[in-house]
Structure formats: C-alpha cells, structure tokens
Amino acid sequence: MALSREHRLRGRFVFDRIYQKGRRIHGQWMVLRTMRAEPQLLKADPRDQSPLSCRLGVVVSSKVSKRSVQRNRLRRLLHGHLSRQLPEIPTQGEGLWLLISLKPGSADAEERLLLGECCELIAKAGLRP
Question: Containing domain of residue 36, as a range?
C-alpha cells in the first residue's frame, strides 16, 4: 500500500532540506528526521489539496540491500504502516515533514521489530502519545 499523493514527500530540494535542517532521532534500524513544512520548496501541483498536510518519505539505500526487490519490499512495508499511523499524527495547523532512512543491516531485521521501532521513533518525536 503506497502513501497517497498528498502525503508523499517528493523532490530533491525537499529531501536535501530535511537532511540539512531536520531534527534527527536515531533508532537501531532507522533514523527519523522531522521538520516543519516549507511548502515553497514543493513543485506547484493543482492536484495537491493542502500543501500543509503531513508528508512522509522513506529512504532505503543500496547499503541496506543490494537487491531492489528487497529494498522495495521494505519501502512498501513502511509506507503501509505509516499510512495507517497518519491519522494519529497531529499537525497543529502547520505542515510537518517526516523522513525515515533505514540503516544498513535493517533488511535482516524482523518486520515486527522494524514497525515497532518506527512507532517508537514517532512517539519519541512527540508526534504520538
């Protein structure tokens, strides 16, 4: 299950800004980066209903797994999990950008451990009670 279009992070400038300015929260298998949305970095798209919605991205590099099938499976797993968590993430009227980067070795971890850590990092960021 993929994230809906209005909740996906996209664009090189957006990812660069999150890597530079985002707050990092480290876990054993992944890193969560958060920052307040900067809608001016997004390309104008008439299909976007709200530029200040919560947007999410998942990065799975080739250091995690050399096989693209494995990387895509991990990305889809996290996208599905995050799309279910999305209604619980408060935005307080302002947009929020979240980026999850998997660390090398996370491909060998069990799915429940990855999803559990994802929930823990979101809670550590103060985005969920």
Answer: 5-41+49-124
Task: Give the DSSP letter of residue 65.
Answer: -
CATH number of the domain that residue 97 is part of: 3.30.230.10
Report CA-CA distances (Å) from 94 to 2, 36, 52, 61, 111: 23, 7, 6, 30, 32
Q: How many residues does the chain have?
A: 129
Q: What is the pLDDT along the chain (129 residues), one digit of tens a residue?
A: 677 777 888 888 899 999 999 999 999 999 999 999 887 787 766 555 565 678 899 999 999 999 999 999 999 999 999 888 877 776 555 688 899 999 999 999 999 999 999 999 999 988 876
pTM of the model: 0.87
Distance, CA of 34 to chain centre: 9
The count of domains in the chain is: 1
